[in-house]
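Please check what follows.
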Amino acid sequence: MILVISHHRDEHAQSVMVELSRRGVATRLLDLSRFPLQLGLSMRYDGHGGSRFVFGCDDSGLELDDCGAIWWRRPQPPSVEGEVHRPAHQHFALSESHEALHGLWQSVDAFWINEPARDAVAARKAWQLELAGRIGLELPQTLITNCPQAAREFLGRVGLGNVIYKAFSATEQDWRETRLVRADELDRLDNLRYAPVIFQRYIEATVDLRITVVGERLFPAAIHSQDSDYKIDFRMDIGRARIEPVSLPADVEAKLLELMRRLGLAYGAIDMRRRPDGSHVFLEINPAGQWLFIERQTGQPISAALAELLQRHDGQA
């Protein structure tokens, strides 16, 4: 059986589960937001090297030994909301829940897209840049700092109007787009002492590139962001940006696959920019990046590729 760790509202999870159902593959969705209040977990060790891991408190529970492939698809966090009220008690309950789950994921013998610990490490933007540079991918000049003076020196060297800044993370509730540093923001650089910020030289581009990687398969797509109303961050006007499938130079493809291998990922959504001279600049990789907006405009069979990879490793092919 294939286990999908996600939630019912995730249309990406639903898209792949529909494809798996069409193939006649047994699949089950696990929503971790139901843990621990509405979802039980038992991890048993017999003292002689044997173990059994079950979600559920009766014989109808989910046996993780039955799962040959597991898709870690933006799972929801455990919750004790509504029943545990004291902040200290909430913290303790959630900390214990996370500790049990992290140990469980490390213990399950299955094929993962992506294994949770590797997924978490691969999401670190500083590590992505370091590893991509070692592999030989071209990167923007970058400064990550919480030192106001270091930021001023970087801006002075690269030039105002040539530097973007971005956060390490963003959520639907707290969105942070990539922006060019403006002159009227220079007096706010002292605020860096509260948290580090990523500064990078702005890369002039003909197109943005989203390269979705599934196993050894690459699905490169060009996003014509420079024809949109916000040329700095294609996400801000994605509904009107033209997207089409493209090809990549063989050496760039090889380096991206090497990056995936070194990060230990089976899936990743990579963002790059293609300069007017045809060169390619690596920006970042999202181990759980979205792809339906690419698939719908290009026809690239990304959902089917994910379903096929899960099915093949689960043994239901």
Summary: The mean pLDDT is 92. The CA atoms of residues 214 and 281 lie 21 Å apart. The first strand starts at residue 2 and ends at 5.
